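During the second half of the funding period, the structural biology subgroup turned its attention to how the target accommodates small molecules. The most pressing case was fe (ii) ion, which had performed well in the primary screen but for which no bound structure existed. We therefore specified the complex as follows and requested a full 3D prediction, including the ligand pose.
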Amino acid sequence: MTMTMDATAPDPAASRQVPWTPGSFALSHAWFPLVHLAELGRMPIRRMIHSQSYIIRRTGEGIVANRDSASGPAAPVIARYGFAWIWHGDPAEADDAFMPDIPFLPRDRLQPGYARDTNFFHCTYELVLENILDLTHIDFVHRNFSGPEDSDEDTVRFESTSETVTMIRTIRNKQTSDYQRDVLGITAPFQDQHVFTHVFIRSGVCFLHSHYSAAPSMPLMQSNTPESRFMTRASVVFGIQQCDSPAYRRAWPRTGPTVAAQDEAMLDPQNPRYLNDPGKADFSTRFDAAGLHFRSRYNALVERQKAGDFAYMPDYLDGNDVAEVLKVRRV
Ligand SMILES: [Fe+2]
């Protein structure tokens, strides 16, 4: 197996020296997809962003969100992509231009119930995003679904902007997984695979997608909302319109809780190590480059917000149109 990296600024070697204290700062001024619209009625729902309560409900006028209590200050809210999105930050700065563009989800329609779910990770959301950007964990933690790590070629490319980190992994001749062979009936013993992850640093929202040369696949959006330093709410919606197999459209979302439990088994023990002993430096290798980019970009956002600068840089737009990167059709 050969593994190659294609790096752009910032330099990951320099990033290795950057201190890393996840859960110590609450980034704000971002849209968070808090509630599946299908779950929202006139009965108020209480949800958290960075330990701040929001009360959300439908009224005769539309969807209303308030901070702290049902009579607290109003918070900006937008219904889109099947979610009620809440702006966490100064309401005067709320602008839907800062909402992620999700090319594989209908903007104004709900996906069917089987294509959405919610899981939880008992850790701060930065660790969830690092895990999602880790190019190797899939082969070990989710081996039954994605296949073992052996392949002829394994290339990882990553890009980042001030607000996003993207990882693209290309694998040649990877063994078909147990799930693909036994459940999906894929007979090809080896496949080429392209894996994409795209992460929005402020909110935790991410897109995940894989293309296999023989097996079906479909993209998903996962919210990774930081409820507190100890809890991440991961609401997911699958882009079923990208998949031509009706059986797979229904079968794959049902694996979500198992996949999430595999990640939770790793993440839950990590959290106290970071929160209780943040001074010790991590050991990283060059294969962690996407995660190190994430740490570097995350720290830069923290420093800007500590200094009172909550603005989005012009390069935000570069990380907000990923239909071509993900190789999906716009719906
Ligand atoms: Fe995972």
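Two results from this model are relevant to the next phase. The pocket of fe (ii) ion is lined by residues 131, 137, 141-142, 263 (CB under 6 Å). The radius of gyration is 20 Å.
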